[in-house]
């Protein structure tokens, strides 16, 4: 599957200021596959080191000292491969299993940066939060891989021409011809069901059966729950699972702000806050923080006790909410509320993939804009509509107060521009 991240990896390889790279991301988003492909396409050879399940052998290499030249020599002997500076990609997979290996990245940066090292970790954020690491602050570059975006989904499903047509219409801001517009909406609905996890997409491509997709999504959801046991007490694990399982209810409320009382009637923030932080650190959930002003920089107007939480993949939301595929594909039995929460989660996922930090704005309980994103030197409001109902009272309230250059309304309607509102189809969020 083609991944946009490949271009970022190539930039890293060619950067004169390159440091060892840490590729983060939730489990099963395709980190290992991407790195192996990167190594195959861009280097003479790849040395792949996997730390989970092989820790004892590898720890003996990193234990005596953290001299990079000695470590390289022993890794070359262990893997029976030649390691050549600039020409060999060294992959440290699931590096969170070895504190010494993580610390060694500092020494590779300072003393042997001619070696190209990429470290990947699914649970690295959790391990760091537990205080298990002497983290090499300032000595590594960071990238985060997410589930496939809708654009990447189009390429994976052999709809490259449609992806190009969407970009053309976005760049010219002219309506898509109906034949392309309707096809893109159908694939958008399909993406809501399947999501962006490679295993789920492959299951559909191989079987054309949504039951196979659901089986893969169940495996992914269960693997996250299993991972929590590695870094949490039994009580903390129970709380993480409770948060994870109640997100559909959180998003289905009239007010989608995260409320601990939805988890349990007497739940308190101090009891669940750490578990929520772990879910965010593992890239399993995404956070959208309320801002009190639509002014730059948005960060200084954050109200940290008011936020929304989404799944990092809309397909998992579809699965966890027990929404049936035909409810979305045929769109006959699905309630407006259900369509709305799926669309909002989808948009959050796509915006994060594009590199935006999520914020939303509320005005004394009378108006709420789903997302506020910084585009150039402006705080642009983005409202999400799941269908053709495109009334935008909240957008108007925001625009009257803060006077942005324009606002964005995402819906099933075609491209258009009227009264300062850019109408963008939901399938084109990856262009923003």
Tell me what the structure shows.
Helix 9 (178-194) packs across helix 15, helix 10 packs antiparallel against helix 11 and helix 12 (234-252) packs across helix 14 (269-281). Helices cover 48% and strands 18% of the residues. It has helices at residues 5-14, 31-42, 55-62, 68-79, 99-111, 124-129, 150-156, 160-172, 178-194, 198-207, 210-231, 234-252, 260-263, 269-281, 314-320, 325-329, 336-353, 393-402; strands spanning 21-24, 45-50, 88-93, 116-121, 141-144, 285-291, 302-311, 359-363, 367-369, 371-375, 378-384, 407-411, 416-418, 421-425. The protein is built from 18 helices and 14 strands. It starts with a helix and ends in a 7-residue tail after the last strand. With 432 residues, it is α/β, with parallel strands linked by helices. A five-stranded parallel beta sheet has the order 2-3-4-1-5, sandwiched between helices. Strands 10-11-12-14-13 form a five-stranded mixed beta sheet. Strands 7-6-8-9 form a four-stranded mixed beta sheet.
């Amino acid at each position: 599957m083609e991944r946009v991240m490949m271009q970022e990896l190539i930039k890293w390889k060619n950067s004169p200021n390159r440091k060892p790279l840490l590729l983060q991301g939730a489990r099963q988003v395709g980190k290992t596959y991407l790195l192996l492909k990167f190594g195959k396409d861009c280097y003479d050879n790849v040395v792949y080191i996997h730390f989970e399940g092989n820790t004892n052998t590898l720890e003996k290499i990193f234990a005596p000292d953290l001299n990079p030249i000695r470590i390289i020599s022993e890794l070359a002997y262990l893997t029976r491969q030649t390691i050549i500076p600039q020409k060999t990609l060294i992959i440290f997979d699931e590096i969170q299993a070895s504190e010494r290996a993580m610390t060694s990245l500092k020494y590779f940066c300072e003393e042997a940066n001619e070696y190209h090292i990429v470290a990947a970790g699914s649970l690295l954020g959790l391990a760091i939060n537990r205080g298990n690491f002497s983290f090499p602050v300032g000595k590594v570059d960071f990238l985060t891989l997410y589930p496939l975006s809708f654009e990447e989904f189009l390429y994976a499903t052999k709809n490259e021409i449609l992806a190009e047509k969407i970009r053309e219409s976005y760049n010219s801001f002219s309506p898509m011809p109906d034949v392309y517009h309707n096809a893109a909406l159908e694939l958008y609905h399909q993406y809501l069901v399947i999501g962006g996890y490679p295993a789920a997409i492959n299951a559909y491509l191989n079987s054309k059966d949504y039951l196979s997709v659901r089986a893969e999504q169940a495996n992914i959801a269960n693997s996250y729950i299993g991972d929590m046991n590695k870094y949490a007490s039994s009580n903390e694990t129970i709380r993480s699972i409770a948060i994870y399982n109640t997100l559909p209810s959180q998003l289905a409320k009239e007010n989608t702000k995260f409320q601990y009382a939805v988890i349990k009637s007497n739940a308190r923030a101090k009891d669940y806050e750490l578990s929520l932080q772990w879910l965010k650190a593992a890239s399993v959930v995404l956070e959208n923080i309320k801002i009190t002003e639509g002014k730059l920089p948005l960060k200084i107007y954050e109200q940290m006790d008011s936020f929304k939480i989404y799944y990092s993949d809309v397909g998992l939301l579809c699965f966890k909410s027990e929404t049936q595929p035909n409810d979305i594909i045929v769109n006959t039995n699905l309630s407006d509320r259900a369509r709305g929460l799926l669309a909002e989660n989808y948009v959050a996922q796509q915006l994060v993939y594009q590199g935006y930090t999520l914020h939303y704005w509320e005005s004394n309980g009378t108006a709420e804009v789903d997302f506020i994103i910084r585009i150039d030197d402006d705080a642009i409001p983005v409202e999400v509509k799941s269908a053709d109902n495109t009334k935008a009272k909240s957008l108007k309230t925001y625009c009257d107060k803060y006077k942005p250059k324009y606002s964005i309304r995402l819906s099933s309607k075609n491209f258009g521009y009227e009264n300062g509102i850019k109408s963008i189809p939901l399938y084109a969020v990856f262009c923003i």
